Each structure stands twice: as C-alpha cells, then as structure tokens.
Amino acid sequence: MTQSPPQLADHCNRCGHDQPGGLDYCAHCGRPMYARPTGWHPRTWWRWTRWFLLHKVLHVDDTPHRIALGLAVGIFVAFTPTVGFQMALTVLLAWIVRANKVVGVPLAWITNPVTIPPIFYFNYRVGALIVGSAGRTMSDFAIREGPWWETVKAWWQVLVDVFWQCWLGSLIVATILGTATYFLSCWLVTVYRARHRRQFPGSRFDAQGRPVAGQAPNPQQAEGSPPAARS
Description:
By secondary structure, this protein is mainly α. The protein has two domains: 9-59, no CATH class; 62-209, no CATH class. Helices cover 48% and strands 3% of the residues. It contains seven helices and two strands; from the N terminus they run ββααααααα. It has a two-stranded antiparallel sheet. A hairpin with a 6-residue loop joins strand 1 and strand 2 (18-20). The longest helix is centred in the last third of the chain and has 37 residues, at 163-199. The protein is elongated and about 60 Å long.
C-alpha cells in the first residue's frame, strides 16, 4: 500500500494561523501565502504580475486612496519622455502628493526599449496635431544600443528636435491615463478589500478598505483563553 507524502503546514506570520500547505491565502486573515517568484522569463510574467498585485497593491499597508494615487503617479511618469529618470521621478512625485511610493515604481518599466518607440511616437503624433509636425517616424524614437548614459543622451537629442510636440502629447496622454488609473484602481482596491473582509473572519481591512492597526487574533490560540480584563 502506497502512502501519500505528508502535507506540509503553512504558518501565517501575520496572525499565527497554521493550516495545510498549498493554500494561496491564510484561511483566517486572508494573507497571500505563496512566496515571491524567483528568476525571470517571459513565461513567468503572470506569476510576477499576480505576486505584485497581491503583495504590493491589494494587501499593502495603505489606504485605497494612497495606493491608487501611487499607481496613477507611476502611469503618469511612465508616459512622459523622462527616460532614464522615471523611477526617481516617480518616487519624488509620490512623496510630493503623499501617495504610496512603492506601487508606482515598477510601472516605470512600462516604457522599455521595446515599448518606447510606439508609445512616444503616438504621443508625438498627438502633440503634432496641435502644434504641427516635425516629420519624425517611429524609428526615430527607438533606443540605441550602448552604455546607459550614451543611450540617454541619444534619446534626449531626438527629444530636443520634437520637444513641444512630444512633451505636449505626452502630458495629454499621461494625464488621461493617470486619471483613469486612479479612479479605476481606487474602486478595485476598495471592492477587493470589502469582499476580503466578508470572506475571512480575521481580515485586517475595515469597511472602507483601510488597514486596521494590529494583528488579527488567531482562533487556534484564542480557544480556551480567558477573556481579557476590562480597564
């Protein structure tokens, strides 16, 4: 008779609840249980995306407003022609508007060597509709290979020739996308946390989706314990 291997138990570091291994969430407080993915490959993009959304957006210790504002700042900066400085600029703007500084930083990689030509050519065309065209093509916005500083210099030399068209179009597109990101993500985080609060008895979110200070009590430890004395 073949015996099945023993199932390892998972211990929640937030509430101290022990449960069978392999579950995605703590059965008591609802904390995501699976670890951060290792390595990077195009086939693992969904695991990384899921891990980021759960750990760095939906379950981050911050309010829906500050999370949504941080995401909006990240999207806004990603669609501006500030290549080479986008991550630092995202942190600075998030600090100025008192948004979450963590959630917006990875969004700077939306504009990468593959996506920069179509994104900023589109922004350039939007600006050219208003102030006139400078006769540029999509290939002019491609990132040249070479050291980081030489690449940034080459990018900014192209940007000087189409300064008004590219900046005006980028600000228009970035403002529209950033505003939409704020309202959509604020609604999604609030709805997710309200559902999370109903589903898990030890959820640390209140009715408005704000994190509650302190750890959720562990039902395994609470059984048989005497009631706390009132002051």
